[in-house]
Design goal:
The complex is a heterodimer. Chain A is an all-alpha fold. Chain A contains 13 helices and four strands. Chain B has one domain. Classes of the chains: A mainly alpha, B mainly alpha.
């Protein structure tokens, strides 16, 4: 098949992956962020409200991770194998943590409540940290020989990946806090607003640190960002992120209920676009491009047609569930 | 290959065995119980009898607990293909990964998207919408089973493509999906889910009947489970037999391992069947055996003297490992299939003798205790069946095309040993706690005072406040 068609198909698939990653990061992001936040809440009742705000959606939110994994596995199997191989420990520890925080929703209704509240909070924190460490490890670019990972078990660990991990934690907490502003009222809501200020400030510091450190540490990123001079298309995501941050501050200041979550989402979108643009066309930095790891055109077309039909359907019933359970949370029980 | 790499392969296999053998226990009930809930909720919507609403709520409580554990134990599986079986992922991802992708997008999302409404939306959506949500969750569960079994059956009997430069390239998606093992793999597993669930529901109901709790309520669920078992238990024996014949046709080494059969029968002579034996791979023979002459040809091929290949037709490195495990796991699974069938017949006999009326049912102590004892049997059969299916496929990860030993990731034994141990601890913890919590839910019994949800869902007030939806 024509190679330009093939390249177009690969770009379509990259867009799908980007879409699934965005859904996962935003939706499970606020979900995990609320989990981390619950560690700082003393009253059991309020922790219950926080978990109840997720009762009907946490499972669907986490499902985007499965969809993302499946899409990567199907369209870019080489990347799937090599990346998960290279990031073995952070991925596995993330799964352990997700198991504990997921089962806590149901188990806290049956067993020692505080114990499972801790499982929920600590599980959320560890899962988030692991996602950040894995992202940092991916940007560093795992060592590959032939078609196999050839590095060590702890290659993903570096001061840089630790900074990325903290950035992800603050970012998810910001999403979680702004989501709670929508779902709660009274004292709980005031608490969420205060948390959003702190998390937002910390996230901006971490983001600024990552933005400065990445081009210093990884010359291929510097080439890309500054190769065409300081003023290029690569300046758009950070500028727009700064705008979103200013609007977020304004929305928090004015006490709006929905706008803070929307502007936090904007900051995340800018970060994801910036990340994707910095890595493109590589899926594994400096070694594997999307083209080199993609399956043949026929396979890409077959699964693209399937996915293109499923995506609107998935979004529709996910959205419907949010509509059915809209409004403030009024009970501290699973599913309230 | 170095010994560290060998250790990684063995540990990765062990880890996958642990995570799947634990995980599958929950989807079995998710799939069967969700369909049972569709039946009870439909009966409620059609007849408007409150007992069917109470049935739906009571068994729904067990469903929610079961679903949650099923989701989290299933999370590792998709990722393990990449983390532990990177080469397999690279070789087969173009088909296998996409099937898992479709499972996630089609089935998993459908379940997750409607689960909230099904469990917590009783007061928020109209009855018809709620029934739709329950049906979608059930459909999602069954579709999930379908796609997973498509992917797994393709590993058993790969079709629809060819190997090219170290990749499995698909020529025909239809042929790959409808590979020879698929129809039997899917239906045998799906019916196993229904059968296990029916005996869980019937067994839990029998336990309450023995204690004299809410007899009219549990007699209804008991009889419904029994009624469905009349169809399901014989059907499963037939499906098991048919899928066994596919194994002998498509994976002869596995078939021979299941029956401890070493020598191919000469033309015109029926193959002997070992009822019991101890296959010894090192000695390449059975240490001892109890033989039923001539029976295997009929069991394996359906004809009186059909040819059944023996293990000696395969080089030892192409024979499955752990022969006694395969041999006895199969016999336990098949034995349970027959035991459940006979329990159904016994119950039918009691029904004909009018011993299951509201007044007499609680006196059928032996029968009811047999149902209680049958609760774990379906689960055991499922795990035994998967053991036969997966160990019997060895030494291949894709039958005849890619060896398991060539498919693993580049990892250290320490990493895989650590995660395997943690998975074993977590899954054991989840199983024990699940059994305790499920027992509590069942012991508590139904809330027979729960009013049915109002015909019209409550309207939201403008500021978003609302009365609390019914407590679970």
């Amino acid at each position: 098949m024509d190679s330009s068609v093939h390249l177009f198909l690969i770009d379509v698939w990259l867009c799908f992956l980007g879409l699934f990653l965005t859904f996962y990061v935003l939706l499970d992001g606020f979900d995990l962020g609320i989990g981390v936040l619950s560690l700082f809440v003393r009253e059991e009742h309020r922790r219950g409200i926080m978990m109840a705000s997720l009762g009907s959606v946490w499972d669907a939110n986490e499902s985007w991770l499965i969809v993302l994994g499946g899409a990567l596995f199907g369209a870019f199997p080489l990347v799937y194998g090599v990346v998960l191989n290279a990031l073995y420990l952070p991925i596995m520890v993330m799964i352990f943590a997700l198991i504990f925080r997921g089962v806590a929703f149901e188990y806290r209704e049956h067993a020692h409540r505080r114990l499972w509240d801790y499982a929920f909070g600590i599980g959320s924190l560890i899962a988030t940290l692991c996602q950040g460490l894995a992202l940092g490890g991916l940007i560093a670019g795992p060592t590959i020989v032939g078609e196999r990972f050839a590095g060590g078990a702890f290659d993903w660990f570096s001061p840089f990946s630790v900074l990325v991990a903290f950035g992800v934690v603050f970012g998810y907490v910001l999403l979680g806090a702004t989501y709670l502003i929508v779902k709660t009222e009274g004292d709980a809501q005031l608490h969420a607003i205060r948390t959003a200020w702190i998390a937002g400030a910390l996230m901006l510091i971490a983001a600024a640190g990552i933005s400065v450190w990445t081009p210093i540490r990884y010359p291929f990123v510097a080439d890309k960002w500054f190769g065409n001079g300081i003023v290029s298309a690569f300046a758009i995501p950070p500028l727009f992120a700064a705008f979103c941050s200013a609007m977020l501050a304004r929305a928090l200041w004015k006490g709006y209920e929905h706008a803070p979550f929307a502007w936090s989402t904007g900051i995340f979108l800018c970060s994801l676009v910036g990340l994707a643009a910095s890595l493109y066309p590589y899926l594994i930095p400096r070694s594997v491009t999307a083209e080199a790891s993609a399956w043949d055109s026929r396979t890409l077309i077959v699964i693209m047609l399937g996915m293109a039909r499923l995506i609107p359907v998935m979004i529709t019933y996910n959205a419907y569930q949010y509509v059915v359970f809209r409004g403030k949370v009024s009970s501290a029980h699973y599913g309230g | 290959m170095t010994s560290a790499a060998d250790t990684v392969v063995i540990l990765s296999r062990l880890q996958f065995a642990i995570t799947t053998l634990f995980h599958i226990l929950w989807p079995v009930l998710t799939i069967g119980l969700s369909l049972f809930l569709v039946v009870t909720e439909s009966l409620w919507v059609r007849t408007n009898k409150i007992v069917w609403y109470h049935q739906t709520r009571f068994w729904g409580r067990l469903f929610l607990l079961n679903f949650g554990v099923g989701v989290v134990t299933g999370l590792p599986l998709e990722f393990e293909f990449g983390t532990n079986w990177a080469t397999f992922s690279t070789v087969a991802g173009g088909f296998f990964g996409n099937i898992l992708g479709f499972e996630g997008a089609m089935a998993f999302m459908l379940e997750a998207g409607f689960l909230g409404i099904m469990m917590f939306g009783w007061e928020r959506v109209p009855r018809a919408m709620h029934l739709l949500a329950t049906s979608m969750v059930a459909l999602g569960g069954s579709m999930s089973a379908f796609w997973i079994l498509v992917a797994n059956s393709w590993m058993q009997t790969p079709a629809g493509g060819h190997m090219e430069n170290g990749r499995y390239v698909i020529d025909s998606y239809l042929q790959a999906i409808f590979n020879p093992d698929m129809p039997w793999g899917v239906s045998h597993m799906w019916v196993a889910c229904l059968e296990t669930s029916l005996f869980v529901i019937g067994g839990a109901s029998a336990w309450h009947l023995l204690r004299g709790n809410a007899v009219p309520f549990f007699r209804k669920s008991f009889l419904l489970a029994f009624g469905l078992a009349i169809i399901i238990t014989p059907m499963q024996i037939w499906l098991g037999d048919a899928s066994g014949k596919t194994v002998f046709a498509e994976q002869p080494a596995k078939g021979a391992a299941i029956e401890g059969d070493w020598d191919t029968n000469p033309p015109g002579r029926a193959a002997d069947w070992d009822l019991l034996a101890w296959p010894d791979k090192e000695a390449q023979r059975n240490d001892w055996e109890i033989v039923i002459p001539g029976a295997l040809s009929f069991l394996a091929t359906g004809t009186l003297d059909g040819q059944v290949k023996g293990l000696h037709d395969f080089a030892p490195e192409d024979q499955p490992p752990l022969l006694p495990l395969i041999f006895y796991a199969f016999r336990i699974m098949a034995g349970i299939g027959f035991a459940l069938f006979f329990l159904m017949l016994w119950t039918g006999w009691a029904a004909i003798r009018r011993r299951l009326t509201p007044e007499t049912i609680a006196q059928q102590k032996w029968l009811l205790w047999a149902w209680v004892a049958s609760i774990p049997l379906g689960y055991i059969a499922v795990d035994m069946g998967w053991t036969v299916r997966e160990v019997g496929r060895q030494p291949w990860i894709i039958y005849g095309l890619l060896r398991t030993s060539d498919a693993a990731s580049a990892l250290t034994p320490q990493s895989v040993g650590f995660t395997t141990a943690v998975f074993f601890l977590i899954d054991s913890l989840l199983l024990v706690t699940f059994v305790v919590f499920a027992y509590r839910i069942i012991r508590k019994g139904p809330d027979l005072t729960l009013p049915a949800p109002s015909r019209e869902p409550r309207k939201l007030s403008p500021d978003g406040h609302r009365a609390r939806a019914s407590e679970i």
